[in-house]
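Incident review: delayed structure delivery

Summary: a single-chain prediction request sat in the queue longer than the usual turnaround. Root cause was a stuck worker, restarted by the on-call engineer. No data loss occurred. The affected request and its eventual output are reproduced below so the record is complete for anyone auditing the incident later.

Affected input:
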Amino acid sequence: MRQRNQASLDDFQGLSPERMHRILAFPFDSPELVTYEPLVGPDPSAPILTLFGLLAEAIGENGLKPTATGNLPRNVCREAASAYWGDESIREEGRIVHIGKEEDFSHLHVTRLVAGLSGLIRKSRGRFILSRECRTLLADHGLCGIYPRLLRSYARDFNWAYRDGYPDLEFIRRSFLFTLYLLHLHGGDWQPQVYYD
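Output delivered after worker restart:
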């Protein structure tokens, strides 16, 4: 059985059943298969980092009072949308007009939820605040130190089916590392979407 579980399989793109199990069940606790850098390279450019930077700036040192429903204030969402999409895009497409609450800017909403799951922001005394660890990471490394925390929480803790109207498919989230492995192997060549499904 041990030999069988350690033998590579074509269906798993050369991975053994044992390694596939580790990838699916322990994507962040299998250093023999994959390691994650504690910091990303300088000037990272990921949408979630841009939005987190805007969120952290809005929260600032004094914190940010949420709405009665516990969300970000509308003016913060609109300012973030303006900075994120750009004034010209907003004027052309009228996007900002449709932002009446945090959920209307879903990218920012998800960023806030993931930042909360990762312990980077929290509510204290009725205000959103940056956690002590978040302030330390930002002071020492800037957004380069924030991204690994957001990635881990998004992949491990966040419900990917949130607000999409479809039933939860936990396997999709659990197989994110295998999808990254496939992209590593075959990402340079065009593949149909079904290849990664």
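Verification: The radius of gyration is 20 Å.
Action items: add queue-age alerting; document worker restart procedure.
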